[in-house]
Amino acid sequence: MNRSGALIALTLLAVSCTGGSFLIETESFDDKGGWLADHQAFEKIHSSYLLAHGKGTPVEDATTAISVPSPGKYHVYASTFNWTAPWYEEEGPGAFQIAVDGDVLPEILGTKGDKWGWQYAGCVDLDEAATLSLKDLTGFDGRVDAIYFTKKRKAPSDDYLSLDRKRQKWTGITGTHKEPGADLVVVGGGIAGCSTALTAARYGLNVILIDNQPWLGGNAQLFPSIGGLGFKNLYPKLGRLTCEMVGLDPSQKDEALKIHGTDPTGTGGLHNDDEAFSDELRRPVTDERSSDILDTEKKVRASGEEITDSGELKALREEYIRKNSSIRRERILKEAGVRVYQNIQIYKVQKKGSKISGVTGKNLNTGEEYSFSGTLFADCTGDGVVGYLAGADFAIGRESKDFAGEPSAPGVPDKKTQGSTLWWYSFPRNDPGSFPKPDEIPWAIQVDSAYHIKGTAGDWWWETGLEIDNALEPELVRDNLLRAIYGNWAYLKNYDPDYAPYRLDYVQHIGMKRESRRLLGDVILTETDILSKKEYEDASFTSTWTIDVHTARPDNAARYPGWEWITTCSKDKVDRYHVPYRCLYSRSIDNLFIGGRCMSVSHLALGTVRVQFTLGMAGEVTGMAAKICKDHGSLPRSVYLNYLDELKDCMTTGIPGTK
After folding, report:
1. CA nearest to 326, candidates 184, 474, 193, 475
2. What gap in Å lies between CA 436 and CA 355, rounded to an integer?
3. Packing angle between helix 310-335 and helix 191-202, nearest 10 degrees?
4. From residue 225, how far is each of 124, 190, 292, 547, 613 by CA, in Å?
5. Cα–Cα distance between 394 and 396 in angstroms, integer?
6. Strand pairing of 49-53 and 117-126?
7. Closest to 462 (Cα-Cα) out of 548, 561, 553
8. What is the reported pLDDT for 659?
9. Looking only at Cα atoms, what is the longest distance across the chain?
10. What is the pTM of this model?
């Protein structure tokens, strides 16, 4: 089947089958209703899924038309599980049912099972066409990956990896879309990836940028301010392209680079309501792609409620800036000739010897497979996905003091990392509604009068996953923080009169990660290097952030060991530090650059390089190095060994076409 034929089949959800079986991927539903697409279980199920993220109110049905290959009686199974099973032994809250042509199948799904698997929904007689619906029963994050119809009462395998090819066949997908090759393939569309791709493209390279989200920008389009400064650079021209990537008004770039310039610590960030952002970016967003905050705004306005609270108006203005900046990024990248692929999750790597020859990904909306070949690759995923799949050397967790004599390192190494955050808001409403009491949601984290967290909104310190692999278990990490948000709000709403007028209207559902894998280069930057101001001949971009490392707050850790959800941070001052180029390529994969927070640093050093503006400048350096590799037919290590003066010239003169 060619590409257009596959798309038609997916649109109609008509599938050829053998043995009287076919499968419907929920992310391909015609109308998702109130269900949200989520990719955070991809490592387990090789697919995205739909999430009933209603904050305790059942969401609208998701519906789709299906074409039945062979009319008759079918047994129906759903791929789902009880997401609270890691903490709660009884039935979970994620209940939903399946309906066909309005008739609801008898079994309640999503409340049992301790891992993703197939649950029986019931039996139905199907004609040639039907309407399939997902009916959420609670609003508490039920989830469903796929619906399987079979004339024999036998569920598919729970081994999703081995099932991968078969489920593609069931949904009418054959073959892989092989995209034309590139000089540089950048995986990860955060600020680091966008800056890397745009820099290389402006030097004339043929560039591909691949991201797994619908909006470019990574964490920067999810919530955080743009931390880190550019005005203290060793190479002052670095940072100007990053201004474009974060959405600063071009006429204000010089001033934007000097924001917080009087801060004696050299720290600070470009917050999303700073004057440096143009009026264009403050306008309401007309793009129809899903956004937790914008979707909430639509629902509130549709209910007839006026949005007048200053905090809510500020939250909306900041979201307008984030999403309009993302739209602007796409335009700038495409104008430079970058081929941008979004909603693609890379999950395979092809190698020839110690070089990567290609990467393969799956479209999270359609299930279609795409392959990308290239000469050079840049892993800007934050999780080191490409390097990990290629077998690159990597580290995760904390190094011991013996590793590099870091003053803040523990005596023995461990797997502790910084975690992930979800932002949430509650606002005063004319109809503040109700929320279950703590004992009505026993699966949530339980707080009481002696211990609870006051506040009407989340903040950076609502953070979990400090002892969990944030790369392999993002769904688990996110779910634990949902339990914390719901459990704490249940107490505030019901037992503290100050919160009675408030309604929990917004809870983010995509986690914002701080740390997972770090790929290792020829230099591993450490806290010792930074504090001693060790000078490297290949010094490149500049870090001005503190050594900002998050750990569990002791009172929270005492009550919720292993599942902490409130953190504190160190704030060791850093006078600007210039990071060596050798942190930006893999020591074990010859043609792999490392970008973003998975660069070659220790756990402690990550605390000062991991913020958005700093990572964008690192991306500029990587793009320059890719240009030098292209010019000489060389590899990333050769830039240091043979062409370091050329890299310094690029950093001095700046990027062509950048103001």
Report:
1. 193
2. 55
3. 30
4. 51, 13, 17, 17, 9
5. 7
6. unpaired
7. 553
8. 81
9. 74
10. 0.94
Q: Report pLDDT for 258.
A: 54
User: How many C-beta neighbours within 10 Å does residue 293 have?
Assistant: 21
Residue 6: pLDDT above 60? no
Rounded to whole angstroms, the Cα distance separating 54 from 34 reads 8
Beta bridge partners of 53: 140
| Cα(659)–Cα(657) distance, integer angstroms | 6
Note the pLDDT of residue 263. 38
Averaged confidence pLDDT in the chain = 92
Residues forming beta bridges with residue 56, ordered by sequence position: none
Query: Is 346 a residue whose pLDDT tops 90?
Result: yes
Beta strands per DSSP E along 324-477 = 339-341, 344-352, 355-363, 369-379, 394-395, 420-421, 424-428, 463-464
In one-letter notation, the amino acid at residue 119 is: Q
Q: What are the pLDDT digits (tens) for 350-360?
A: 999 999 999 99
Contact between 121 and 37 (Cβ < 8 Å): no
Is the separation of the CB atoms in 270 and 253 below 8 Å? no
CA distance 260 to 241: 19
Tokens of 250: 């071009």
Mean pLDDT of 428-457: 97
State how far the alpha carbon of 520 is from the alpha carbons of 211, 523, 592, in Å: 22, 8, 11
Question: In angstroms, how far is CA 115 from the centroid of its own chain?
Answer: 22
DSSP 115: S
d(CA 653, CA 639): 17
Q: Give the amino acid at 234.
A: L
User: What tokens appear for 491 in the block?
Assistant: 């107490």
Q: What is the mean pLDDT of residues 201-212?
A: 98
Indicate the residue type of 232.
K
Q: Which DSSP string do the residues of 77-100 spell out, in sequence order?
A: EEEE--TTTTT-SS--S--EEEEE
Q: What is the pLDDT of residue 382?
A: 96
Beta bridge partners of 140: 53
Report the C-alpha gap between 127 and 68 in whole angstroms.
7
Please list the residues that pair with 135 across neighbouring strands.
Answer: 97
Whether the predicted pLDDT of 64 surpasses 60:
yes
Token digits for 565?
């959800």
Q: Quick one: angle between helices 612-632 and 644-653, nearest 10?
A: 130
Q: Which two tokens stand for residue 590?
A: 């010859």
Confidence check: pLDDT of 630 > 80: yes
pLDDT the model gives residue 175 = 87
Q: Bridge partners of 147?
A: 24, 78
> What does the angle CA 513 – CA 583 – CA 654 come to, to the nearest 5 degrees?
95
- DSSP secondary structure letter of residue 635: -
The per-type count for the chain, helices as H runs and strands as E runs, is 19, 31
Amino acid 314 reads: K
- The amino acid at residue 172 is G
Is pLDDT above 90 for 262? Answer: no
